[in-house]
C-alpha cells in the first residue's frame, strides 16, 4: 500500500471516529441488537428500520476504541438501502479485508480497515458492529459477542 493511500485510509478512520455518521437511536426502528467485545470493553447497539427486506434506516450507539466506533459509523453508511442478502455479502467482503489486508478493487472506504489485519486483537473491534447489525437483520435476540465469533 502506498504512503498516500495509507494516509487517506487513516484519515477515513479518524474522520468516522471524530464525526460518526448515523449515531443515535432511530425512533422508528423495528429491529435492534446489542454487541459486546469483552476483551476490550467495546459496546455497540445497532438500530434498523426495515422496509420489507431492505434496510431503510440504520444507526448505532456505543462506546469503545476508535476502530470500533469508526467501523460502526462506516458500516451504517454502507448498509443503508441494502437487502439482508446484500448486507451479508458486504460483511463477507469487509471480513476478508480486516482478516487478510486485501484491499477492495473498487477503492471503497471499507479499504480503510485493511491495516487492521496486522493487529489481530483489533479485528474484533472492527467487526463488532457488523455482527450486531446482522443479528438485528436476522431478528436474533441474543447479543452479539466477539467471544462467540471466530474473527
Q: Can you tag this structure with a few keywords?
A:
151 residues, alpha+beta, Sufe protein. Chain: A, 4-stranded mixed beta sheet, 4 strands
What does this structure look like?
With 151 residues, this protein is an alpha+beta fold. It has one domain (3-139): Sufe protein. Chain: A (Alpha-Beta Complex), CATH 3.90.1010.10. The protein has helices at 3-18, 66-79, 84-100, 120-138, and strands spanning 31-37, 42-51, 54-63, 144-145. It has a 4-stranded mixed sheet, covered by helices on one side. The chain is globular and about 45 Å long. The model has no long low-confidence stretch (mean pLDDT 91).
What is the global morphology?
globular
What are the secondary-structure elements, in order, as H or E? HEEEHHHE
Contiguous uncertain segments of 5+ residues: none
Distance between termini?
23 Å
Concise synopsis of the structure shown:
With 151 residues, the protein is an alpha+beta fold. It has 4 helices and 4 strands.
Topology readout:
Blueprint: H1 3-18, E1 31-37, E2 42-51, E3 54-63, H2 66-79, H3 84-100, H4 120-138, E4 144-145
Parallel strand pairs: 1-4
Antiparallel strand pairs: 1-2, 2-3
Helix pairs in contact: 1-2, 2-4, 3-4
Amino acid at each position: 500500500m502506498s504512503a498516500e493511500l495509507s494516509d487517506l485510509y487513516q484519515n477515513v478512520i479518524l474522520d468516522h471516529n471524530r464525526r460518526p455518521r448515523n449515531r443515535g437511536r432511530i425512533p422508528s426502528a423495528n429491529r435492534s441488537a446489542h454487541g459486546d467485545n469483552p476483551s476490550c470493553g467495546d459496546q455497540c447497539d445497532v438500530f434498523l428500520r426495515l422496509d420489507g427486506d431492505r434496510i431503510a434506516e440504520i444507526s448505532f450507539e456505543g462506546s469503545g476504541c476508535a476502530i470500533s466506533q469508526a467501523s460502526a459509523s462506516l458500516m451504517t453508511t454502507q448498509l443503508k438501502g441494502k437487502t439482508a442478502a446484500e448486507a451479508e455479502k458486504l460483511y463477507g467482503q469487509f471480513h476478508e479485508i480486516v482478516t487478510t489486508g486485501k484491499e477492495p478493487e473498487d477503492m471503497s472506504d471499507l479499504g480503510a480497515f485493511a491495516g487492521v489485519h496486522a493487529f489481530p486483537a483489533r479485528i474484533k473491534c472492527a467487526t463488532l458492529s457488523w455482527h450486531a447489525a446482522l443479528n438485528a437483520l436476522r431478528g436474533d435476540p441474543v447479543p452479539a459477542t466477539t467471544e462467540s465469533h471466530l474473527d
